[in-house]
From TrEMBL:
GO molecular function: metal ion binding
Stretches of the chain forming a coiled coil according to its record: none
Keywords: Iron, Metal-binding
Stretches that traverse the bilayer: none
Pfam families: JmjC_2
UniProt source species: Burkholderia pyrrocinia (Pseudomonas pyrrocinia)
Protein known as: Cupin
Cofactor(s) the protein requires to work: Fe(2+)
Cross-referenced SUPFAM superfamilies: Clavaminate synthase-like
Residues of the JmjC domain: 106-251
Length: 396
């Protein structure tokens, strides 16, 4: 056995968000049910205006995901996006003086679908692994006292992470239960109006996190001070997704391939087809295959690490390398982990390593070596390096 030179000298690495509740308890009490305010959940000292400016500057202002909003609607793109020619190319960039002007008038800058920005997306990864759901990150920046929208609801659950300043939230109970992505409050509010009496009226302060389920009406107002919050939306598998997945496999069933003429003639075919559909949807094996397929389609963003994983002269991780399990859900199987790169199987003698990573999703290499003193550094290093290469763990 090789002599060990690494020793764990620090506590286990903590998540960015302290949810202050176990995931199982959150899912039983709040998820899809009730709003949940988490006071002091985030240490915001590491997020600076320079970080925020850099991230916003890397967004595409021409994209539909980038906008400047007032209660009356979104500002036309041509008013803050500059189009110009550069060596024969047509380019578009943010007209910064125009943007500054709109913000000074009370507008809100909204940047949706922010990806590959660890400063923001580390929070999203915490939410993803806490809920077991895919996430999408948006940022809201404002300086005035003007609402960015009027009362509305979202078709996804949202974790609002207050990074700078404060915002007032007025929240109302849902009038349309469990909306999906095709539903928008502005199109059906005449049938399902916002209630008159608020359910909550509070100020979300810097470092707080607020969970609001889909369908809950809300209005969010800046308080005349610099304010930045992330809206991290979560996207689970829905019943409609399961049905679509089952239906995509129906062509292998003879009853689904039969030509139809009229109901009197075809009712037996329809009955038999309905039985097949019901049987498959109620089959736990079929359900597990669907969930594994759904999770495998979700990609958790991972930091690029060319100097360690792209360098052929490097074949081991440093003792102090900090690692994070890069798996959305680890509860789908006892034998393997489902990732966007496929199933990752562990040999029987490495099952304890898998279990340790699941229980402690953020650790460093030395802590793993301390946990498995009967393993040589070479054995552990080979296993960890392989997991990092295929994206099962991330070097952070």
């Amino acid at each position: 056995m090789l002599q060990r030179t690494c020793r764990a000298e620090i506590d286990f690495i903590k998540m960015k968000i302290n949810f202050k509740i176990k995931a199982d308890e959150f899912k039983q009490k709040y998820q899809e049910r009730l709003p949940f305010i988490i006071k002091g959940a985030v240490d915001t000292s590491s997020v600076h205006w320079a970080d925020i400016n850099d991230i916003i500057s890397r967004c595409d202002p021409q994209s539909e995901h980038f906008r400047v909003s007032f209660p009356s609607g979104n500002v036309d793109k041509e008013k803050y996006v500059h189009t110009y020619f550069h060596v024969g190319d047509v380019r578009r960039k943010l007209n910064r003086p125009a943007l500054y002007g709109f913000l000074r008038q009370g507008g809100t800058l909204v940047a949706n679908h922010i990806y590959d920005e660890p400063k923001f997306n580390d929070y999203a990864k915490d939410v993803a692994q806490f809920t077991g759901r895919q996430t999408v990150t948006s940022a809201y920046v404002a300086f005035g006292k003007t609402d960015s929208y009027r009362e509305h609801w979202d078709s996804r659950d949202v974790f609002a992470v207050q990074l700078k300043g404060r915002k007032r939230w007025i929240v109302y109970s849902p009038s349309f239960e469990a909306p999906l992505y095709m539903h928008q409050s502005k199109y059906i509010e005449h049938k399902y109006p916002c209630p008159d009496e608020p359910y909550l009226d509070f100020v979300l302060e810097e470092g707080d996190v607020f969970y609001i389920p889909r369908g809950w009406w809300h209005n969010v107002t800046p308080l005349g001070e610099p304010t930045v919050h992330l809206a991290i939306g979560t996207f689970p598998a829905f019943g409609i997704d399961y049905a679509k997945w089952v239906f995509r496999k129906l062509p292998e069933c003879i009853h689904a391939r039969m030509a139809l003429e009229n109901y009197a003639q075809d009712k037996e075919t329809i009955r038999l087809l309905a039985e097949v559909i019901s049987e498959r949807m109620n089959d736990p094996v079929c359900y597990r295959e669907f969930m594994e397929s759904h999770v495998a389609d979700q990609i958790l963003e991972t930091r690029l690490n060319l100097e360690t994983l792209g360098n052929a002269s490097v074949n081991a991780l440093e003792c102090d390398a900090q690692l994070r399990l890069n798996v959305l859900r680890s509860d789908l199987s006892d034998d393997y982990l489902v990732t966007s790169n496929g199933k990752v199987w562990f040999q029987d003698d490495l099952q304890p390593l898998k279990d340790f990573l699941v229980t402690n999703p953020q650790v460093n290499v030395s802590q793993i070596e301390e946990k498995f003193p009967d393993r040589t550094r070479a054995e552990l290093s080979e296993a960890l390096y392989s997991l990092a290469m295929n994206g099962t763990i991330e070097i952070i």
